[in-house]
Amino acid sequence: MSTEIRIARAEMKYARMSAFKIRDIARCLRGLSASEADARLRFAPQKSARLLVQTLRSAVANAESQLSIPAEKLVVHEVMVGEGPTFHRFQPKARGSAGPIRKRTSHIRITLKEAAGETSSSKEKKERKPAKAKAPAKE
User: Fold this and answer.
1) Alpha helix (H) residue ranges in 8-138
2) Full domain range(s) for residue 103
3) Could you read off the pLDDT of 112-136 as tens digits, one per residue?
Protein backbone atom coordinates (compact mmCIF):
# COMPACT_ATOMS: atom_id res chain seq x y z
CA MET A 1 0.00 0.00 0.00
CA SER A 2 1.46 3.37 -0.97
CA THR A 3 1.67 6.11 1.63
CA GLU A 4 1.48 8.84 -1.01
CA ILE A 5 -0.98 11.59 -0.11
CA ARG A 6 -3.07 12.54 -3.11
CA ILE A 7 -4.24 16.14 -3.21
CA ALA A 8 -6.68 17.90 -5.56
CA ARG A 9 -6.92 21.66 -5.86
CA ALA A 10 -9.16 24.28 -7.40
CA GLU A 11 -8.80 28.06 -7.55
CA MET A 12 -11.23 30.85 -8.26
CA LYS A 13 -9.48 34.06 -9.12
CA TYR A 14 -10.81 37.61 -9.11
CA ALA A 15 -14.01 36.76 -7.22
CA ARG A 16 -15.89 40.06 -6.81
CA MET A 17 -16.15 40.01 -3.05
CA SER A 18 -13.93 41.08 -0.21
CA ALA A 19 -11.66 38.36 1.17
CA PHE A 20 -12.75 39.33 4.68
CA LYS A 21 -16.37 38.35 3.94
CA ILE A 22 -15.39 35.05 2.32
CA ARG A 23 -13.04 34.04 5.14
CA ASP A 24 -15.94 34.32 7.57
CA ILE A 25 -17.69 31.38 5.88
CA ALA A 26 -14.56 29.49 4.78
CA ARG A 27 -13.27 29.16 8.35
CA CYS A 28 -15.76 26.41 9.26
CA LEU A 29 -15.00 24.10 6.29
CA ARG A 30 -11.58 22.75 7.18
CA GLY A 31 -11.58 19.08 8.17
CA LEU A 32 -15.09 18.34 6.88
CA SER A 33 -15.78 15.74 4.24
CA ALA A 34 -16.42 17.23 0.81
CA SER A 35 -20.08 16.20 0.81
CA GLU A 36 -20.71 17.68 4.27
CA ALA A 37 -18.95 20.94 3.34
CA ASP A 38 -21.08 21.15 0.18
CA ALA A 39 -24.26 20.62 2.21
CA ARG A 40 -23.32 23.32 4.73
CA LEU A 41 -22.53 25.82 2.01
CA ARG A 42 -25.73 25.15 0.08
CA PHE A 43 -27.86 26.29 3.01
CA ALA A 44 -25.79 29.34 3.94
CA PRO A 45 -27.54 32.54 2.78
CA GLN A 46 -24.36 34.54 2.02
CA LYS A 47 -23.06 35.24 -1.49
CA SER A 48 -19.63 34.06 -0.36
CA ALA A 49 -21.09 30.58 0.23
CA ARG A 50 -22.07 30.40 -3.45
CA LEU A 51 -18.52 31.30 -4.49
CA LEU A 52 -17.07 28.68 -2.13
CA VAL A 53 -19.49 25.99 -3.34
CA GLN A 54 -18.44 26.63 -6.94
CA THR A 55 -14.78 26.24 -6.04
CA LEU A 56 -15.41 23.17 -3.87
CA ARG A 57 -17.31 21.39 -6.63
CA SER A 58 -14.52 22.22 -9.07
CA ALA A 59 -11.96 20.69 -6.69
CA VAL A 60 -14.10 17.53 -6.32
CA ALA A 61 -14.39 17.26 -10.11
CA ASN A 62 -10.61 17.67 -10.44
CA ALA A 63 -10.04 14.87 -7.92
CA GLU A 64 -12.45 12.54 -9.68
CA SER A 65 -11.20 13.18 -13.21
CA GLN A 66 -7.44 13.60 -12.69
CA LEU A 67 -6.71 11.39 -9.67
CA SER A 68 -9.66 8.93 -9.81
CA ILE A 69 -10.57 9.54 -6.17
CA PRO A 70 -14.29 9.07 -5.42
CA ALA A 71 -16.04 12.09 -3.89
CA GLU A 72 -16.95 10.14 -0.73
CA LYS A 73 -13.26 9.79 0.22
CA LEU A 74 -12.38 13.48 -0.04
CA VAL A 75 -11.77 15.76 2.94
CA VAL A 76 -11.27 19.53 2.89
CA HIS A 77 -7.61 19.96 3.76
CA GLU A 78 -7.16 23.69 3.27
CA VAL A 79 -9.22 26.75 2.33
CA MET A 80 -7.13 29.79 1.48
CA VAL A 81 -8.74 33.15 0.72
CA GLY A 82 -6.35 35.87 -0.38
CA GLU A 83 -6.88 39.39 -1.56
CA GLY A 84 -6.91 40.07 -5.27
CA PRO A 85 -6.51 43.43 -6.99
CA THR A 86 -8.73 46.30 -5.89
CA PHE A 87 -10.64 48.38 -8.43
CA HIS A 88 -10.53 52.07 -7.54
CA ARG A 89 -13.57 54.18 -8.37
CA PHE A 90 -14.77 57.59 -7.19
CA GLN A 91 -18.10 58.79 -5.86
CA PRO A 92 -18.98 62.47 -6.35
CA LYS A 93 -19.29 64.33 -3.05
CA ALA A 94 -20.42 67.75 -1.95
CA ARG A 95 -18.80 70.94 -3.24
CA GLY A 96 -17.04 69.30 -6.17
CA SER A 97 -14.95 66.82 -4.21
CA ALA A 98 -14.79 63.06 -4.73
CA GLY A 99 -14.75 60.14 -2.30
CA PRO A 100 -12.88 56.92 -3.06
CA ILE A 101 -14.67 53.60 -3.54
CA ARG A 102 -12.65 50.41 -3.33
CA LYS A 103 -14.16 47.41 -5.13
CA ARG A 104 -12.27 44.51 -3.66
CA THR A 105 -11.64 41.12 -5.24
CA SER A 106 -10.25 37.90 -3.83
CA HIS A 107 -8.66 34.62 -4.83
CA ILE A 108 -10.10 31.40 -3.33
CA ARG A 109 -8.11 28.16 -3.24
CA ILE A 110 -9.56 24.91 -1.90
CA THR A 111 -7.36 21.85 -1.38
CA LEU A 112 -8.91 18.41 -0.91
CA LYS A 113 -7.04 15.32 0.16
CA GLU A 114 -7.91 11.68 0.21
CA ALA A 115 -9.23 10.62 3.61
CA ALA A 116 -7.00 8.10 5.32
CA GLY A 117 -8.40 5.33 7.50
CA GLU A 118 -8.94 5.81 11.19
CA THR A 119 -6.17 7.94 12.71
CA SER A 120 -4.21 7.01 15.80
CA SER A 121 -5.47 10.06 17.73
CA SER A 122 -9.09 8.93 17.36
CA LYS A 123 -8.12 5.46 18.62
CA GLU A 124 -6.49 6.99 21.68
CA LYS A 125 -9.66 8.88 22.50
CA LYS A 126 -11.68 5.67 22.49
CA GLU A 127 -9.18 3.80 24.70
CA ARG A 128 -8.86 6.55 27.29
CA LYS A 129 -9.84 5.61 30.85
CA PRO A 130 -12.83 7.38 32.35
CA ALA A 131 -12.04 10.26 34.70
CA LYS A 132 -12.04 9.52 38.42
CA ALA A 133 -15.15 10.57 40.26
CA LYS A 134 -14.71 13.53 42.56
CA ALA A 135 -15.13 13.05 46.26
CA PRO A 136 -18.57 14.15 47.49
CA ALA A 137 -18.66 17.63 49.02
CA LYS A 138 -18.88 17.79 52.80
CA GLU A 139 -21.94 19.51 54.15
Assistant:
1) 19-26, 34-42, 47-66, 120-127
2) 7-115
3) 999 876 444 444 445 556 666 666 7
